[in-house]
User: Which sequence fits this backbone?
């Protein structure tokens, strides 16, 4: 399989569950993982006579999302999307159709490319089916059990323009979108738990040709499967076309284990959702004042935070940009900025934050983090020791890094002790020393290792190298 | 018969207990309901408990509320927790809701005693109760005649003297038409005045709950109890309303009454005659009568029979055999949905679901549903224009008096045409009232209809009270 | 707006499918005639020129009816499930589902 001069056209639909306390149209708890059918009421089970009332917080989150995606936030209303499905209790979904809340936005990805946002609208989630028999999959199951705890959970669906051209770019888009949604506090963005769900529309064409027929891929549960599925699907379509077949517009299911997409069984009747304005709800017309207030409350977004870090570092080489992206993605940029202000070298703080810390766990205070970086920069701690101290700080966030280093036995060796250790190692490894002295630099690591072993890891690698170099220079003269 | 006003006063003063009043109701029902079939279900235990609670409050020197001890019939499309709620349909046979409609909660909080659930056309779709899956109700004035519908059971329950008050729902005339057929006051409040929470939806943008009573003042009293803002209904008006009970005594001096040709043309001659007589009663009481035409009202029927079925087709999708009600088991879920709905819905409901599904389906939306919604605007604009000239409109409630069983079953269109005069009010979301105003030569009641601009329902009570007094003379 | 074409039996069958109803041959006949008669009555509005009128979805121009994000009590699960045709393990039970949700 090869792309044979074709380009891939990708548009994504991302559903994200909002982090409200209650559901979109009723006061039931919006909570993942509770006992089945314990967060339910007449509204979200679709009992006759029940009526929806819109959750203000959900609207606020949806507007935050719209503003963060640079959308126009507009007068909107709700429609009914009519279709029968057992996890959809009213047999219609309340969604937004021709008048969505947010339209015409954009996201700039870390690589500078821009993806247009068609719309970001509000809708309700469905219940969840568990399939009995047939190995838990819908196909081959004998029966299904339905839990309506998730029914009515607020969603925002973010629809992109077909602006992406590769699986890698689509992955970067979802990562950036996720970071934005998490930053504005609207969602926890957990793809594995389904709080963020991605469907991909993929087509291929020869550059300059009109768009080809597209397939919609479902069941993309991670960034990795998103990228793999798109790459697989593009190749499949090219193969089809090259073999003289037509692409059928259809929905396809990504099989992660098999690494391929497969056609989903099509339903017996064509979809005709018979959208019409939801008569039980009134239009949503956020005031200019409300929108302005929400805008004022928006936190700094990932892009701005990355720019701030790059400015602080004064460097924008690719390695730094990658570290910056990691640090912002993990919400560690504030710590780096504070530690730098407290005296830590910025580049070192960035590297250590990106590689040693995780915002999900406990973080050291900016002061302790800065102090550890300073100890390392001064040579008082080796890189390995500094990493160990950071790990210990996570266990004991209130401890002083100096005390921790001491407790770990990382007190600095005196110059004499180190000198002696180096001399002894050189003496014991005559052949290697002759080769090193003769210019074989690769042996530096050998000597560092030996000295480390002799000093039980307390030696500073940089100090050992400078001693080795001193002695080599002396030997040569 | 004792009115709700009178009975509540007697109960509050200890003249009669709520329990005694309730047993009188049950006795009357026992005596005649096997013939009339007003009720689908009698909640003996629940009602007796509610009556006892009222009596306990009175005994303790407290005030049980403005409807103290008043037995009330509840149309069987209003949810009552633990009480069967069928909507007159096999598809909901035996369903007991786990919650109670706001209007019923408010009635009980005001001391009223719901005695049971009254018969209706299936899902409130019909004008005669002949579409009830559990058999029709009969008109107490002539048991060979229909009581009207869809709230026919509620009308019969009050007209037969079983209860002084019953609740109905009005989507295209379902309170006013049976009120006219049975000689009662029937009031459809302005849309948003009364909560729809717990009213099983037929057409959400048209449905409104209202009372059947024997007097205009009772209708005001009951509406003050059930009406007002409900945060559980997004279409419930947050603003306060005029005092309707007070409006009953305000008279009509200086009020401009539009005698509307398009609410009369096509009605039986003796009905037209009664409406003209009503106008003269109002004139004599100081109102100014203005003849006017609003030809747009004629378009209401077509708009209504597209909008209401469209909304109904979606509202009735949830009867799918999954969560409640009937299930006809089949191999897979989709086949089960089809079998359940095919067995559970009667022909009229199917007809309207089909009509509404068609009107919303791809390729037809603009021609039917979209056009109907624009027509709805046209009619509302025409009414608004009329109300710049007059304060209320007067016309017939129905083109005929109560018809016989089977007369209109074969031709749905002829049945739909009997809603001609009541539909425009629902489309505009305004209030309207049918007031009994004499009988036909054959002895069947005739109703006169009063229409008011939206949220000015107080004028209906001004006019209704004067007509009520006028006909008694 | 021009008159839509008359209703056909095929359309009636298609619409019944969308509405999840099964019609006998007789019912298809009757419904085609009856619905056709309602639709031809509706010709009085389909022929109107209503250009410029805003479609009316609601009687009154209410906007922004919102509730605060405060949890309320859930229904009692046993009471809810008691009304269900079939139940297993605290969930509503249905037969085989053919096809994924759209
Ligand atoms: Zn709920």
Assistant:
């Amino acid at each position: 399989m090869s792309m044979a001069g074709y380009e891939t056209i990708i548009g994504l639909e991302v559903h994200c569950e909002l982090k409200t306390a209650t559901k979109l149209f009723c006061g039931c708890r919006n909570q993942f993982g509770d006992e089945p059918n314990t967060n339910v009421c007449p509204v979200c089970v679709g009992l006759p006579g029940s009526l929806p009332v819109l959750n203000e917080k959900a609207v606020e989150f949806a507007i935050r999302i719209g503003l963060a995606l640079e959308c126009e936030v507009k007068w909107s209303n709700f429609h009914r999307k009519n279709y029968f499905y057992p996890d959809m209790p009213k047999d219609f979904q309340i969604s937004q159709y021709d008048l969505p809340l947010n339209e015409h936005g954009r996201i700039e990805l870390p690589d500078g490319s821009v993806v247009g946002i068609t719309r970001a609208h509000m809708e309700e989630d469905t219940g969840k089916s568990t399939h009995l028999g047939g190995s838990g999959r819908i196909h081959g199951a004998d029966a299904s059990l339905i839990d309506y705890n998730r029914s009515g959970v607020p969603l925002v669906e973010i629809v992109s323009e077909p602006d992406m051209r590769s699986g890698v770019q689509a992955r970067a888009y979802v990562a950036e979108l996720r970071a934005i949604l998490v930053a504005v506090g609207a969602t926890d963005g957990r793809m594995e738990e389904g709080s963020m769900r991605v469907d991909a529309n993929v087509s291929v064409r020869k550059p300059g040709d009109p768009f080809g027929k597209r397939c919609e891929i479902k069941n993309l549960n991670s960034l990795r499967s998103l990228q793999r599925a798109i790459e697989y699907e593009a190749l499949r379509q090219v193969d089809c076309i090259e073999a003289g077949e037509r692409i059928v517009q259809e929905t396809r299911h990504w099989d992660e284990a098999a690494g391929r997409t497969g056609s989903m069984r099509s339903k017996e009747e064509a979809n005709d959702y018979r959208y019409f304005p939801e008569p039980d709800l009134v239009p949503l017309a956020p005031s200019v004042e409300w929108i302005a207030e929400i805008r004022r409350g928006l936190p700094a977004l990932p892009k701005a935070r990355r720019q701030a870090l790059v400015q602080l570092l004064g460097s924008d080489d690719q390695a730094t940009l990658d570290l910056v992206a990691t640090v912002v993605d993990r919400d560690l940029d504030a710590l780096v900025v504070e530690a730098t202000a407290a005296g830590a070298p910025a580049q070192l703080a960035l590297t250590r934050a990106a590689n040693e810390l995780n915002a999900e766990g406990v973080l050291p205070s900016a002061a302790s983090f800065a102090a550890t970086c300073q100890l390392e920069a001064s040579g008082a701690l080796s890189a390995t020791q500094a990493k160990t101290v950071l790990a210990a700080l996570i266990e004991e966030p209130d401890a002083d890094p100096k005390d921790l280093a001491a407790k770990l036995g990382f007190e600095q060796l005196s110059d004499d002790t180190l000198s002696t250790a180096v001399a002894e190692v050189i003496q014991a490894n005559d052949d290697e020393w002759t080769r090193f002295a003769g210019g074989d630099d690769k042996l530096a690591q050998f000597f560092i290792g030996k000295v480390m072993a002799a000093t039980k890891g307390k030696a500073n690698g940089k100090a050992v190298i400078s001693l080795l170099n001193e002695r080599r220079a002396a030997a040569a003269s | 018969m004792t009115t709700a006003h009178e009975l509540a006063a007697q109960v509050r003063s200890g003249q009669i207990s709520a329990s005694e009043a309730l047993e009188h109701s049950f006795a009357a029902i026992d005596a005649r309901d096997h013939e009339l079939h007003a009720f689908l279900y009698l909640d003996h235990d629940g009602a007796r408990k509610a009556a006892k609670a009222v009596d306990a409050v009175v005994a303790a020197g407290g005030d049980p509320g403005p409807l103290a001890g008043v037995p009330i019939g509840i149309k069987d499309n209003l949810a009552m927790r633990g009480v069967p709620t069928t909507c007159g349909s096999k598809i909901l046979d035996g369903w007991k809701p786990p919650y109670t409609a706001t209007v019923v909660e408010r009635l009980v909080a005001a001391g009223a005693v719901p005695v049971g659930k009254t018969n209706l056309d299936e899902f409130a779709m019909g004008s005669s109760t002949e579409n009830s899956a559990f058999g029709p109700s009969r008109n107490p004035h002539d048991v060979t005649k229909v009581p009207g519908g869809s709230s026919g059971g509620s009308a019969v329950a009050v007209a037969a003297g079983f209860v002084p008050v019953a609740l109905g729902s009005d989507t295209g005339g379902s309170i006013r038409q049976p009120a006219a057929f049975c000689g009662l006051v029937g009031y459809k409040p302005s849309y948003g005045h009364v909560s729809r929470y717990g009213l099983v939806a037929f057409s959400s943008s048209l449905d409104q709950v209202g009372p059947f009573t024997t007097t205009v003042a009772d209708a005001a009293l009951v509406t003050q109890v059930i009406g007002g803002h409900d945060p559980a209904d997004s279409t419930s008006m947050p603003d306060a309303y005029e005092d309707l009970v007070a409006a009953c005594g305000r008279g009509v001096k200086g009020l401009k009454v539009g005698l509307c040709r398009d609410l009369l043309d096509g009605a039986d001659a003796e009905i037209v005659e009664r409406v003209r007589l009503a106008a003269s009663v109002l004139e004599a009481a100081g109102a100014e009568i203005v003849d006017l035409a609003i030809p747009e009202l004629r378009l209401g029927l077509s708009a209504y029979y597209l909008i209401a079925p469209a909304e109904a087709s979606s509202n009735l999708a949830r009867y799918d055999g999954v969560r409640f009600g009937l299930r006809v088991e089949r191999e897979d879920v989709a086949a089960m949905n089809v079998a359940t709905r095919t067995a559970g819905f009667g022909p009229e409901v199917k007809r309207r679901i089909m009509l509404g599904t068609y009107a919303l389906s791809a390729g037809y939306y603009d021609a039917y549903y979209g056009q109907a919604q624009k027509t709805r605007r046209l009619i509302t604009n025409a009414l608004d224009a009329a109300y710049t000239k007059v304060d209320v409109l007067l016309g017939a409630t129905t083109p005929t008096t109560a018809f016989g069983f089977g007369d209109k079953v074969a031709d749905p269109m002829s049945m739909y045409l009997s809603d001609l005069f009541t539909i425009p009010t629902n489309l505009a979301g305004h209030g309207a009232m049918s007031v009994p105003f004499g009988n036909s030569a054959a002895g069947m009641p005739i109703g006169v209809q009063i229409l008011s601009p939206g949220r000015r329902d107080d004028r209906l009570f001004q006019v209704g009270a004067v007509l009520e007094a006028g006909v008694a003379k | 707006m021009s008159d839509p074409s008359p209703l056909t039996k095929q359309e009636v069958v298609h619409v019944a499918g969308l509405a999840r109803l099964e019609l006998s041959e007789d019912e298809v006949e009757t419904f085609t005639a009856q619905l056709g008669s309602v639709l031809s009555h509706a010709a009085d509005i389909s022929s109107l020129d209503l250009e410029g009128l805003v479609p009316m979805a609601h009687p009154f121009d209410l906007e922004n009816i919102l509730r605060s994000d405060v949890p309320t009590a859930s229904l009692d699960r046993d009471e809810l499930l008691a009304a269900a045709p079939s139940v297993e393990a605290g969930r509503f039970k249905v037969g085989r589902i053919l096809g994924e949700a759209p």
User: Anything to note?
Assistant: Residues 25-41 of chain C form the longest helix (17 residues).
